Amino acid sequence: MGYEVDFLAVGEGERSGDAIALRFGNLAGPRNQQQVWVIDGGTKESGKELVNHIKTYYRTDRVDVVVSTHPDSDHASGLSVVLEEMKVGVLLMHQPWNHAENIRQLFEDERVTPSGIEERVWRALQDVRELEKIANMKGIKIIEPFSNNGYCALSQTAKLHVLSPSIQFYRQQLANFRCMPEAVQKDMMAPLMEAILGKVKEAARALETWFEETLTDPDPDATSAENNSSVVLLFELDGSKLLFTADAGVPALTEAASRAEKLGIDLRTVSFIQVPHHGSKRNVGPTILNQIVGPIKTPESYDKTAFVSASKDGQPKHPAKKVVNAFMRRGANVFATQGKGLWYYSNDAPKRYGWSAATPLQFYDVVDE
């Protein structure tokens, strides 16, 4: 079985996004011996690029499964183009308005009603509403991806595991979405404070060596509830493990690691991993990286590949230099899109003429605080 993974370049200025295509199966054989997946679509523009990329390199106008990992527009917006312009079999996507009744008891305010919750998310999450609308119009089946559903056997040599969220974890996150009643006041000052603190820290620098790490475990609430609702996927393809993390933070990644452990899967043995949330230091720390990537190794002993979706001008936040260093210490060769696409593939993937080898990021001796 062959496979190939494409991370398209998404984002302008400092804003990043995700647009990922995946093909696996008998890549030299007919289309019915292959599967094509799309995991997030970035912006409308990158959605168009995804469509063109799949038609050009995968030579098909059909996508078996489209995954919307979470409702942020830098991930979901471009998927509307994919749904509209391609034949799609299944849409994996959470439908938050379907959970209003189940999360009512999580609010102390008795005036909060299921219909009020449903109206809030319906009004706030327009990108995923649009995906649902298109899917219903085109007869595309929608399935909510939860770890409770067990694994999916994609073929004799391919499995898919949804490692996070469980339905319980998802509902806890949903109750803390920005559009929810108790989140409105709490989050009003957050962007302003973040901007002020960012300016203060802009000039701060720290020195690192291979064995001296300055990355620390972030606070549990450092990542938004929306990001922690991200779908975390593990593909097992003919002995290779590929982990896709979207914008998951430490709580979601811990949930994923716990699920993998229950399944008897050691995430430290993955050959490919997506760096969460464009390489933000708010999403990972040493403790969770030791669980999902592995312990610190001897210098430059790389045994896996890590891709990070980051805009051309995303640094110092996307990717954070100390996050890049942390993945490298644990055996991951790190590559960033930064204005260009990335391609990860098995030995039997078809050649692409005009493509050249990507250059991995180098270890940083000086990192931003």
Radius of gyration, in Å, reads 20 Å
Oligomer: single chain
Give the number of domains: 1
**CATH class term:** Alpha Beta
Q: Main sheet? A: 7 strands, mixed
DSSP E strands, number: 16
Total of DSSP H or I helical runs spanning 4+ residues: 13
What is the 3D shape?
globular
Alpha-beta classification: alpha/beta
Helix content: 25-40%
Q: Report mean pLDDT, rounded to a whole number.
A: 89
Low-confidence stretches: 183-193
Measured by DSSP, the beta-strand proportion falls in 15-25%
CATH architecture: 4-Layer Sandwich
Walk me through this protein's architecture.
The protein is globular. It is built from 13 helices and 16 strands. The N and C termini lie far apart (43 Å). With 369 residues, it is an alpha/beta fold. The protein has helices at residues 44-58, 73-76, 79-85, 100-103, 114-124, 126-138, 167-174, 181-187, 190-201, 225-228, 250-262, 286-292, 321-329, and strands spanning 2-7, 19-25, 34-41, 62-68, 87-93, 141-143, 152-155, 158-164, 205-207, 232-237, 240-244, 272-274, 304-308, 332-336, 342-345, 366-368. The longest helix has 15 residues, at 44-58.
